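chain below, 180 aa
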Amino acid sequence: MRDRMGRVRVMFVCMGNICRSPMAHGLFRDLVQKEGLASRFDIASSGTGAWHVGQRPDRRMRTTARGRGVSIEDLRAQQFKARDLDAYDHILVMDRSNLRAVRTMDARGRHSHKVRLLRDYDSEPGDGQVPDPYYRGGFEAVFDMVERSVAGLLSDLIRRYGLVTAKADREPIGRTHRSR
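prediction:
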């Protein structure tokens, strides 16, 4: 399912929408732009909780992103709503807790095919979850996990939807941001 303009709608979800999901949103948006596909995607992020609605991403995540050449300054936290299950084609969650929270909103299971863990697309999936750096730190490691995952996601969506990139004759998608 795509919108009337043929855009693929992608939503990234974490708990508060101030660390992991805005990072995924910003990285995916950056990759999509670099591939010349910005007009083909609608990208959003949200949190299963409402604590931070309207706030900018966490300062530490913004600093990490900026240090790697990605801006997430324009993003503002919003809460995931049941209607988002209908509105988005792909809903990528950061951990199993948020996966359960999103699936709980889909009582009939009509949208289970489009709700997945983001790290399902990671070439190094570990335990399949993106850890929350809010209390424990590890923002650089989270950036790396999310970067690999969104690169895998974009590669999959390009194949799935038959999208033609502006850079068809270049290296594989991903690893375009400065390392520490």
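The chain has a mean pLDDT of 92. Helices lie at 20-34, 59-67, 84-87, 96-104, 133-136, 139-161.
thats it, cya
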